Amino acid sequence: MKTGPLNESELEWLDDTLATYGNEKSVIDVSELDGMLTAILSAPHDIEPADWLLAVWGGADAVPRWKDERERDRFINLTLQHMSDIAERLGEYPDQFEPLFGTREEEGQILTIVEEWCFGYMRGVALADWSGLPDDQQRALDAIALHGKEEHFERLDTFTADEFIDSIEQIAPAALSLFDYWTAHPKAPVVQQPVRNDAKIGRNDPCPCGSGKKYKNCCQK
């Protein structure tokens, strides 16, 4: 796998791929992906790639039907390369860390769009247990959630232009602060308990192992 920052064409390819295979539950663009990866790297414990890659698409049922293995592998490799670049900036070069916010041109001006990045960050937060943050770190998370949850949009509508700009400027420092906190205070991952099925299985019922045989001819033996 290549290392270093993705170039413009690679970021555009990721963006187009997310748009092509996306759905109402998936990450919608490369800005949201960047935010999600930042939160995953900042989590209180490691999150397996198999888990967060499914979350990118909104679950196992929404994984794309790739054109071919090459397309799938390119998406995964570019995503991992971008994630590695974010990790390096967060951990070693924080002065170079910059969220990949979107932009929009309006009346001849280029506007910064932070919602997708913040929504992605909160999507990543949902993959781990972030409870127990001290007050200052909770405020940092709230600064990101302000733009990353629809429930706060009405509040944002009441902001003055200066208040809105200030809220945007708090996002990057908040992400760095949360990364530093969980790096210094990691949690053990929650161990999922096996699901018990206490319902009695009849001897002539299909075996729960999925073999297609009757229970008496399979696992009951």
UniProtKB/TrEMBL annotation:
NCBIfam families: PRK10396.1, ygfB_yecA
Organism lineage: Bacteria, Pseudomonadati, Pseudomonadota, Gammaproteobacteria, Enterobacterales
Protein name: YecA family protein
Gene3D superfamilies with a match to the protein in the record: YgfB uncharacterised protein family UPF0149, PF03695
Signal peptide, first to last residue: none
SUPFAM superfamilies: Sec-C motif, YgfB-like
InterPro entries for this protein: SEC_C_motif, YgfB-like, YgfB-like_sf
Coiled-coil ranges (or none): none
Any Pfam family hit: UPF0149
